[in-house]
Specification:
about 400 residues, alpha+beta, two-stranded antiparallel sheet, 16 helices
Length: about 400
């Protein structure tokens, strides 16, 4: 207790230097809290946009389908699966899809594409496909053998809404699958692989053309929030334990490329944050070192009176940690206030609204304050600052009272 009182009194002997040190630590903590919250909020918007375009938060598939994508690897009893999905309140919406790879020909060109069968009405609740239509119209329930074509695929084939396409592929039973489709709309998702290689038709038409016998390949699910994805996955996996051959995949397993992009961006961001903290740490190191040089004579007198070098080190570390904690607490409070303000108001980036709207991204980005973003940055500041204060304190171990008292 005595050491604490002495330390608190000592740090205010030079209030200007103390405040500058505290404000430097507070600024670094504030910046880290806000930037980490903004970064994680951007990731959440990116993930939600991506899953709403195509994959959903979760998918139920036949085991091995994600890897092999064979047409015969199907969910044979989708009605039983639908009953389970309807009984889970955390699932906001779901739909069935079926996929096959086929040759598609127009009057001008032929291309290999993925044909996806969708349920138009249910698809609107799961994905933003309807909002991505750039030409023509969305599929209706009465659009028999109608097709939605990706923008790049439409340009490659040279087709516009109203044109005909010929499909030639292999059915689930091994027979030849062939049909003529009419282009009803052209969509643009911003995902190159989807815009270049995907053609969508009604699920009923797909099942008829490819002899699916009522089977589907995917049940695509969206849940209320990203935080509930793992819980819903576990619950759904438990419920499907008695149904052989089915697996539940989350968006990280379905889109590993997106997860890797986020991880790479997070690593690069952490490097920048570390550089910021190290710069702040050097300024704090200089402050602590100068404080020890200025008080060398004082320390010599204290050692001559019987104070051990260990106790002096302890006193100096308490002083440095007191300033550090004051700065971190101030930075966390200010960082939380700034983040909560923008979490409510959003951050508008001029000139990006048209691009964001085109791909279903909100025109404002919202930081997301959490326990992780609130504590990770300040925790790093505390660790680096502690390390930077240890080295000046170690100089006290070799200090000799006579030499210290004669220091000018």
């Amino acid at each position: 207790m005595i050491d604490l009182k002495m330390a608190l009194r000592n740090i205010w002997r030079n209030p200007r230097r103390t405040w500058l040190t505290i404000l430097a630590i507070a600024f670094a903590s504030l910046l880290l809290v806000f930037m980490l919250s903004f970064q994680f909020g951007s990731y959440e918007a990116m993930i939600n946009t991506s899953v709403r375009i195509s994959t959903g938060h979760l998918q139920v598939q036949a085991r091995g389908y994600q890897k092999d994508r064979n047409i015969w690897q199907a969910v044979n009893d989708p009605n039983d699966l639908a009953t389970i999905l309807n009984s889970m309140p955390d699932i906001v919406a779901w739909t069935f899809r079926a996929n096959a790879f086929s040759l598609v020909s127009s009057e001008k060109r032929t291309d290999g594409v993925q044909i996806t069968g969708i349920e138009p009405e249910r698809e609107k609740q799961v994905s933003t496909l309807k909002d991505l239509i750039r030409k023509g119209s969305y599929l209706g329930e009465v659009d028999l053998y109608g097709a939605l074509v990706g923008d790049r695929l439409a340009r490659n084939l040279g087709v516009v809404p109203g044109d005909s396409l010929t499909v030639l592929g292999q059915g689930r039973d091994g027979s030849m699958a062939a049909s003529v489709l009419t282009v009803t709309g052209v969509f643009e998702s911003g995902i190159d692989a989807m815009d270049r290689n995907v053609l969508m038709i009604r699920l009923e038409d797909f099942q008829e053309i490819f002899f699916m016998g009522g089977g589907v390949h995917e049940a695509v699910l969206t849940v209320s929030s990203l935080k509930k994805v793992s819980l819903v996955k576990k619950e759904l996996t438990d419920r499907l334990a008695l149904v052989k051959g089915l697996v539940v995949l989350d968006w990280m397993e379905i889109m590993p490329g997106l997860l890797q992009s986020i991880q790479m961006d997070l690593v690069s961001g952490c490097i920048m944050y570390l550089i910021l903290v190290i710069v702040v740490a050097f300024s704090i190191f200089n402050t602590f070192l100068m404080a020890i040089f200025e008080r060398t004579r004082e320390f010599g007198v204290m050692m001559a009176m019987g104070t051990s070098p260990f106790r002096l080190m302890k006193l100096v570390l308490i002083e440095s940690m007191a300033m550090t904690l004051l700065g971190i607490v101030l930075g966390m409070v200010l960082g939380s206030l700034v983040t909560l303000y923008f979490q409510h108001q959003g951050i508008y980036i001029p000139g990006t609204e048209d691009i964001f709207k085109q791909y279903g991204i909100p025109d404002r980005l919202f930081p997301r304050l959490s326990l992780l973003t609130l504590t990770a940055g300040p925790g790093l500041v505390f660790c680096i600052t502690f390390i930077s204060s240890v080295f000046p304190a170690l100089k006290l171990r070799k200090m000799k009272p006579v030499e210290a008292m004669s220091h000018v």
